[in-house]
Design goal:
The protein is mainly α. The protein has a single domain (15-96), classed as Leucine-rich Repeat Variant, CATH 1.25.10. The protein is built from 4 helices and no strands. Helix 2 runs antiparallel to helix 3 and helix 2 packs antiparallel against helix 4 (77-96). Mean pLDDT is 87; it is low at 100-107.
Length: 107
């Protein structure tokens, strides 16, 4: 039995999409746009079961932050887990220090 095209809901986009292609697109866009707000989602993608998502996520993080923190997308799970924890610590430190910066004035 065929389902009318109007009855099929669209596949959600973004990091939480059930469609791997949509997740990869979100990762790529975050890296291309140097989007710092995507860092937490990219860190989560480092734990993906999809090696392509892990590779793209670390490259996006590197573009945004200039860091890899020793993460290797192809490393064994236990090694990747340690690197993901380093990323979480890095993010906590940087998020805590993210206060609006003001330029000192010359007096």
């Amino acid at each position: 039995m065929l389902t009318p095209a109007g009855c099929i809901p669209p596949v959600p986009e973004g990091f939480d999409s059930p469609d791997p292609a949509m997740r990869l697109r979100a990762i790529a866009e975050a890296g291309q746009q140097h989007d710092p707000s995507a860092v937490p989602d990219l860190i989560e993608q480092l734990e993906s079961t999809d090696p392509a998502a892990r590779l793209m996520a670390i490259r996006a993080l590197e573009r945004i932050t200039g860091e890899t923190l020793g993460y290797d997308y192809a490393a064994p799970l236990w090694e990747r887990g340690k690197a993901v924890e380093r990323w979480r610590q890095w993010y906590r430190r940087h998020a805590a220090n993210k206060a609006p910066r003001t330029t000192p004035t010359n007096r």
